[in-house]
Design a protein that fits this description.
The chain is 28% helix and 26% strand. By secondary structure, the chain is α+β, with helices and mostly antiparallel strands. The two termini are 50 Å apart.
Amino acid sequence: MIRDTKAGTLRASDAGSTVTLAGWVDARRDHGGIAFVDLRDASGLVQVMLDPAALDEETVRSLRGEFCIRVEGEVRARPGEMANPDLPTGDVEVAAASLEVLSPAAPLPFQFGDTVDEARRLQYRYLDLRRPEMSDNILARSKAIAAMRRTMDELGFLEVETPTLIASTPEGARDFLVPSRLKPGTFYALPQSPQLFKQLLMIGGVERYYQVARCYRDEDFRSDRQVEFTQLDLEGSFWGQDDVLETLETVAVAAVKAVRDIDIVQPFPRLTWHEAIDRYGTDKPDVRFGMEIRDLSEVFASSEFKAFAGTVADGGVVRGINAGDQGLSRAGLDGLVERAKELGAKGLVWMVVEDEGLRSPVAKFLSDSEQAALREQLGAATGDLLLLAADKWRTASEVLGQLRLELGQPEGHDDLAFLFVVDFPVFDVEDDGKMAPAHHPFTSPVDVDDMAANPETAISKAYDMVLNGSELGSG
């Protein structure tokens, strides 16, 4: 047996016992001729005392970070003033009676606490995986998947694996193709999702199905997208949208409980797609902070400021957010205008609230009543930065929504704000005037006849689960 005890499990109650540990040298300290190393394995770390007089002196002297070692010794209680309250094992240490180097380590290309670019992390992936952040992520992922599986089983779902070498079918991205050896010139496709197979299972009488599925989509990389990923895929027969959302809530709550040991309140809030765009400028809102978008069209419908009044007269809107006290310079404010243009806006009006009134390039065009109404509707106080956009409803909303995300600051970064966005449109009108599926080609309309008569306003039976501004899943 290479080891009989995990380093992170030792406690004061183990004092006096003899243990055998194996792991990596996390840190080394020398005091008065005695070496102390923190020995780390997957369970945590514990301090090990190495006395060169009792061990091979050359071996002790050679140890440095990430040496893989095996130690046998007695667990001893650390004196009160020497205990480390920041470590679960901080009340004890192991006095080594034997020391074996299982694998020496060359000087490290980077320290675990360093900020390292992605290419270097991947070059030394085996070291990257030892970093606490990565090991914590792997553990969290394992716990989350185990909790999801357990919950799906308890809810009466059957786990069914579906093929990964399939015929190509139209979906939301390009397929990855695998050439067939037996039939030259033909190809398999890797699944973008198990869509057709789970429908076959429903028709075949498997009323509740799930799997932890690997999916492949040949699409551009983004911060929250990659070509190969894992999803919890599920399907059911004889159930409606509310049943699906309640199931997803139960699974998400179980996963969070397993990973973070906190209880999430159910039911999750629900916003329609229109409400999400109208209030937050995005269909995946981060609701951990306010800064909601307000419609100011009525305030400026008859304004002397023609850029606003003219937009309203042409069927557009004037919308705004209160970004709070940002403390930006004039250059910073002008930079926001350029940023808005990059996002597709015709322009952006900024106003800084001061004791004597509004400071803005357009303040002189606004009447006292308009300024008062603006301050009231945006809940403005001295020092606040107000941002206004005049454009089509969706353009103005989405531009302000992005600025909201860039300027906003959640009070609690660790808060988990789940919600569902429902009632997506069936179609989006693209720049060339053509309509395309807003969600995905499999989305069912709420009313088929209404979709046929009014496709541009038809509502779908589609929904997204959103967490802190990121889409977690959809159906």
